[in-house]
Input
Amino acid sequence: MKLLPQRRLTRKQRGSSALLIDPVIKEIRISGFRNTRKVTCPYCQSVLSVSLVPHMKKTHSKEWAQWTDAMLRLYNKTNDLKHVMREFSNNKGQLLFTWAVVDNEVKRKLETEGVAIQIRQKSGVTRWDPTADEYEKFKTTIWDVPRRGSWGVHQSSYRGNWAPQIPRAIIEYYSQAGDLILDPFVGGGTTLLEAWVLGRNAIGFDISQFALEVTGSRLRELDLRANKESLFGLPNVSVEVRNGDARILAGIQDSSVDLICTHPPYGNALQYSHGEPNDLSRVRDPGAFMDEIEKVGNRFFEVLRPGGFCAILIGDLRRDGRLHTFGFETVERFRRQGFLVEDIIIKTQNQDRSTEFWFKSDNLRLRLKHEYLLVFRKPLNGNAVRSVSPVTRLERKNHPSATKKTKSVEGQKAKSHPRRKPR
Ligand SMILES: C[S@@+](CC[C@H](N)C(=O)[O-])C[C@H]1O[C@@H](n2cnc3c(N)ncnc32)[C@H](O)[C@@H]1O
Output
């Protein structure tokens, strides 16, 4: 495997050890809680409802730019969004904004200002395999992961990532050593890391530059550490991450993939990029989002080999007083493409936005505590049923992602994975 070196940061980008957080932040007055929260602007004394952030961006853009520079410097030191969030608190320890604000600003700087980001490696890898407490093969269709696994180089720093127990279980149940696994929404690379240690070939795609940097860095780290620590023999398979759109999957041959193991955005519940137009988490309208998921399903059906599995984790969305049933609709839309439903697994959700300090509580609504892990199978004699206008081959060819080079980690190209015979 050929690895590209990580980008080096300039001294300015790394920041000095004395991280200058504007001292006025410590004096900010905050009263109330959640819906009733009031924050007094330290520069003009305006009293803002709930959050100071829109006001800062609009009225004090120069000071906001300084705050966001400090955010980036802190982020580069720790990669810990919650740590950065906590630094921006007043002298009573009241937080100014959530870690999502930090996440958005870091991504904005990377995507629109081209500022380099330092991806931190895990300080110590104590074990390469999950402990019995962390991971036991699931035996039913309810999967509960109370504590995310932290074996190997896994870290939780990619916002919205899934616990490594989930891709591990999917890979163990629905694939075999030497198979080709595809994660078209690869995020921070959890699936690729698990595929690699479990001896599967793997390709990941993501539309976000930040995701590609994180995944590339994690793969390099795994490779380097495995080479150093002779105790751990990393299987000799091909693993790569590419910049591209899950609806297009440029360069992937039809019927070449054994297992799709993936975790798309749930509408715009959590936004992954700052301004990337093909980012599905920027599609606000739930119906339009499902139309895009149907295109994804159409392309998945094409690239999967007959008899191959597709496991997709998706949750519903509560918005404007309505429940948008993304789980059920994904089943319907994937069926229309020709997929068979193999398993419907309920995955319990232990953390979400409602556990954040700023969340506006709505006592009349039950908190969503589950997601759906939907496992589909392509029939042995399956042909895609085109119920939507899929992305055409011409669009696919002309799409910018079709011409972009593999990002960060270059392994063998997809053509090295021959079309497989159905099992
Ligand atoms: C839920 S996250 C995946 C997290 C991943 N399972 C992990 O453990 O890190 C969804 C990812 O989909 C990506 N994404 C959004 N739209 C996309 C598209 N059209 N094609 C490919 N990736 C996309 C986002 O950038 C984000 O990284």
Remarks:
- Residues 256 and 419 are 5 Å apart (CA to CA).
- The first strand starts at residue 2 and ends at 3.
- The chain has two domains: 11-112, 142-416.
- Residues 158, 160-162, 184-185, 187-188, 190, 205-208, 211, 245-247, 263-265, 272-273, 278-281 surround S-adenosylmethionine (CB under 6 Å).
